[in-house]
Every structure is written in structure tokens, then in C-alpha cells.
Amino acid sequence: MQLYSYPDSSLWAALQQRPAAAEAPQVAARVRAIFEQVRAGGDAALLTLAAELDKATLTSLLVSDAEFAAAAAQVPAELQAAIRQAKTNIEAFHTAQREPELRVETMPGVMCSRRAVPVQRVGLYVPGGSAPLFSTLLMLGVPARLAGCPEVVVCTPPQADGSVSPVILFVAQLLGIDKVVKAGGAQAVAALALGTASVPAVDKIFGPGNRYVTAAKQLAAAEFGVAIDMPAGPSEVLVIADASANPAFVAADLLSQAEHGPDSQVVVLSDSSAVLEQVQAEVVRQLALLPRRDVAAQALASSRAILLADATSMLEFSNQYAPEHLILATDNADALAAQVTNAGSVFLGHLTPEAVGDYASGTNHTLPTSGYARQYSGVSLDSFVKKITFQRLSAQGLQALGSVVEIMAEAEGLAAHARAVTLRLASLDANASPAGAAATKPYAGLIRPSVERMQPYSSARDEFEGMAPVMLDANENSLGSVGPDDFSRYPDPHQRAIKADLARLKGVMPNQIFLGNGSDEAIDLLVRLTCTPGQDAIVICPPTYGMYEVAANLNDVRVERLPLTADFQLPADAAEKLAASNAKLVFLCSPNNPTGNLLAQEAVETILRSFRGLVIVDEAYADFADAPSWITRLAEFPRLVVMQTFSKAWGLAGLRLGVAYASAELIAFLDKIKPPYNISAATQQHALAALAAAPRLPEMRDELLAGRSWLVAQLAEVAIAEHIFPSDANFLLVRFTVDATAVYDQLQSRGIVVRNRTTQPGCAGCLRLTVGTTAENSQLVQALTEIGAETRVSIAASASSI
N6-(pyridoxal phosphate)lysine modification sites (predicted)? Predict the structure, then answer.
């Protein structure tokens, strides 16, 4: 390393120059030529460049299914476990970066919001030349998956034999990424920017690399309209080491960056000449032990050890240099860290090597280099999303804000802008008559007048959102917190983070979501919202979920029945009967409980078009069915409410979290009458964790449906099972040839509990059997087989005695 003692500050700029800067014009020219070659030749150019630059002869650019299948067996179990732990830490840190949707009513009736939407197509560049960096795939793939990016493409250089490192393929499989392209260097970036037959063009390119990769990313951004994460080039570290530093630790940190590549740079600053001498001696000693010592030695040739006067000078130099990695090897690291203004990632104290950030602490190791830390942040969850703003004006809002916009637009000479407001204000005036108002209100006559007039309860967290150093507004007992979680504070009463995640998952806006303490709370509030006690009615379609009628009885509301047919479908005249009814609500359970079948789409659609009340489609079991959710029809039917739950497909019945989806206006009414803080903080935490793992839902669903199919096949062989009704849910309704209640009792005596539905309309002789685990399903079938055999013996004995 080159040693400099107390250099004048006028010389610092020269000392801060990166080694690759002098070659920048030649690099840029070569990269541009590669882009032109890929543009002209597509896949063929990539194959040629692989042979020329990677010395690899390829027959295909894409990693095959066979290569994926063979990868895991080539990765030692110890390494697999380490990778899984690193993935867990990275997921934890990046999940915590999620932001709830921002919603601000800037003035009455003017609602502005901002939510995060994933970048649709992302390309991840994973260096894989002399040292395949599978850790980079973790750092990029984890936030891409958490953000919900629909299409993820990985490019990584092939090895000389045309293969891709099995560890990289193992990580790709762990992250659910199935498109890996054997292309490295500038040609990979060109392919991601331009697109070829095998490589889809992407919206944003991520990943570190050498100076050619960095130049290629900058060219892609400047001339081809492709976003990039940052200019992330050759790796670098700067260590501030005072007299308290351990020279062996510092030397190891310097070498950990030098071994990345010959164009890496390491810098050590100290106010102790003794420490610098000891560090350099340690560098020489440890370098001789490294397998990649030749590479590290080349990097050290352009690296520097600099003696400065004090901590102030060292921090000033570091902030000007803006290192990718900054290590504060001092006893007062926290105090120094407060003064850091330019760095990609900072490592505090003597026991925090830069290597932990490279692999497994949880922070991201894709960081700005070459001084770009002055302007750029490292990769984070935000890197994979765009923030879109929304605004909605009510009539009140337009009337309050309209004149402001008209005046400003006219002052700028933009008459069309002003007219866009003026026309709407005139329309509001024209529709101010009762007839005009009724035509624009789909809930006219449906909401109880007392609810429309009421002032909702305002909790402390409604009046002051967020947190402050001292919170004394909500009568909480901050002395009472016990355990690892602090539950001394009231939870978010608006459940913003959950609604934001659900909105992305379901394709709705957060203000179209109501969260209840179980679906039962939504059922009860819908009855209370619309039905005046002792006066109004709801409609149910038995056999169906019992809580609809319970909610009506509790609120002194009449229940009208529209029974399902023998095959558990809506009767042919259902829409006609409902059109003639004055009921405020009709509850349609689909898939139905306890029968398990979907209601015919055409019949539900006809009701939605003709019924004047609210149509509630309860989709508690919809995740197990193949039909699309009615959530997709909310815009078409303003009086439609769709209920779902976390209890079934999500496997989280203990959370008691139900969801209602409807128009924003109707959800606002439900929020108006819901109890304050109706969803606990613990429930919110677990729900957010489940939403982060939403990609696992299809896997869980497939496993359960396989269990359902197996159970149907096995029950068909059980002598006492007369009929197994078709099911689109996670249960089966089964009619028995013998007394179903007796079967229920005998199952219970064997330690197996099912649901006796014999008293339900159309369900005589039926038990409802929930699909359980493989072991539970087997126990159930075995028990029913034994009960059947015992029944036959009993019948035979009775016959012989006669």
C-alpha cells in the first residue's frame, strides 16, 4: 500500500481518485461497441461474446430445468443452512422497510394519497467470473420478491464449461426465480436493456460489477431509457482506525475488499503512525495466506494508507471520498457515525467486519461506489417500487378547491385547465336538485339516517397520527409493557400497512378495504349500518352460515329466507323475489357453508343487477375455488360487498381477522361505526408477516386441494358414506347411510371431532368434514371404515336375533 503522511488538503482530491478513472474513455467505447453488437445480433451475439470474453462455448443462453434440478445436490448442507439464515435476516430488515400508504386530507373533501407499486420487470446482474457472488442474488432477489415484482430475470456469467455456479442456481430456486441467463459483463446489461429472443427487456437493472458493467448500466440509462439502481462498480472500503484499533482486524477488512478484483480499492486512515505500520505489516502477512493473493496484490498496488492529524480530518477526508463501505474501527464509533454524511454502508466498532454486511447481517450489499455515495443510496425495498400519487375530490372538496385552481390556471394563461374545473362545478350546481342527487347516490335509502347524521367516535390516534417522543394523549400505561413486544400502546386504528399490502395483492385501493375482528364483525356492522331495529329485514339463503341470522336477531332485524335448491343453488326465481323485497341486505355465501359449492355466477350477477339493497358475497373459502373473486367486479356493482378472511386459506384462524371489500364510500360508512382499535397490535403484526409470505399461498392451497381429492377418493370406499357433495372449499359435506349423529358421537369417542349438520335445511344425515393434515385425514378415514364395519356387525347381529 502507498503511505502518505499528513498530506495537505489540496492534495486530497488526487488521493481520492479511483484507479479505473483513467481508463474510462476506452471502457466507454468498448461498451458502446458491445451494445451495438447485441442490438444487431441478439442471442447470437451473446453466444459469440460468451466464447470471446468468458471462454465458454454455449448451446443455450437459458439455464435448463435439468441444471436447476441438479443444483441443490451440489451445494453442501452447511452452506445451504447458512444461505437460509442470511435470507431470513435480509428479509427481516427489508420487510421492515415497508411503508403504509400515505393518506392526507389536505382540506375537507380533498384526499391525496401515495402508494408503492412494484417495478414490473427487473433484471438482476450477479457477478460470476472468478468468484461467483451468490450473495448478490440474495441481496437483489429478496427485496424484488418482497416488493412483488412480477417478472425477475437474472444474468450471470457462465463458467468455462458453460455451466452456472450451482450455488447461484440454488439461491435462485430458494427465491422462486426460474429465468437465469448465461451472460455476463456489458453484454448482459445490453441484453437486459435491449431485449433478445431469450432475454426480455426490463424496466430496471440492478447489480454491481466491474467498470465495464458500470459503464454499460450508465449507457443503458442515458440512451435506452432503462432505469438502474446506481453506478455500482469495483468494490472499495475505507477504514478509519485510531490508536484503539486492532491492526490484524483492519488488515483483514482491507484484504476482504482487495480480493474482489484487481480494480478494487482500499484506503485506511489513522491518526497513529504506529497503527498504520502495524496494519501494513499485517497486510503483508495475511496476504501470503490468501488463495486470491495475486488478485488482492494488484488491488493493493493502487490502495492507500494515509496518516492524518485527528478524527475531524479523517471524517472530512472520508466524507469527500464517499466510500462504498466505511468501517469505524474506533472506541467512539457511534459518535463518529453521527457525523458521516457520505457512505454506502457503515460498520461500527471493532467487532463489525464489512463481511457481515456482504453476506448476512440483513443490510443490502449492493452499494454506490466511485464516490456516488454522495448522491445515491444502496439498494433497498424502495429500489424495487415506484411511488404513485392519487387524489380524489368529493363535491365538497371540488367546491372548496375549484376557485383556487381556476385563478391559478387563468394567471398562467392555461384556459383548458381552468375549464376542466369550471365544467365540473357547473355540473354540481345542475345536480343539486333532489332528483339529480338521488341518481348519483347508489346508497340512497340504504344507510340508516341516524348513522348518516352521527359523529363518529374520535380516538386519540385519530386526532394525532404517528408518534412523538412523549405520548400522553391516549391514557395508555407505558409502565405495563412485558415480554418482547411492546403492547402498551394502542394499535394503528386505521390498519394502514395491512390495507396497503392487501390492496396490492387484491388489485383494489386501500380505502376499499375494511378490516374486522373476524368476518363476524363486518356482518354485524353491515346489519347495523343499514337496518333500523324492529323495522328492516335481511335475506339469507339456507343452508348457510349461521352468523347472518344471529347478527339480525341481535339487532332486532327480521330475517327473510330464500332457500337453496336440492343441489344447493339459488332458485330460478331468486332475482325476481329479491327485486320485490324491501330487505336491506342479502347474504350469499360462495363457496357456501356448510355445502362447499360455488353459487352460479349468472344467478349472482342477476341479483346484483336487480336487488336494490346491498349484496354481500361471503368468500371465506374462495381461495380454494377456481372461479375468480367477485372483488374484480366491485367497480361494476357499487352495492356489492365481498367478504374474505385470514382464517381459511391463510391458515390463521387464531388471528380473527376478517376483510370486507366494497366501494370507498361504503367502506367509509363502516369505518364510521366500527369500534376504535378493533384490530389488535399483535394481530396486525402477524397479518403483515403473513402478507410478506403471500407467495406461499398457492403452495399451501395446492397441498390442501390434494388432501381434499384424496379424502374424496377414500370416502367413496367407506361403506356408510352415501354421498359426498362436490366442494370448492376446504371441507366436504357427506351424507351417511346410517344415523349421522351416531357417527358423529362415535368419531368423538375416538378423539375425532367433525361438525354435525343434520339439522340444517337440506342437510339431513350429513356431517361436515374439514380437510386436515395427511395424518388427520388418514385417521378420519380409518375411523369411518371401522365404524362402518361395526355397524354391519351390529345390523347382522340384530337380524339373527330376529
Answer: 648
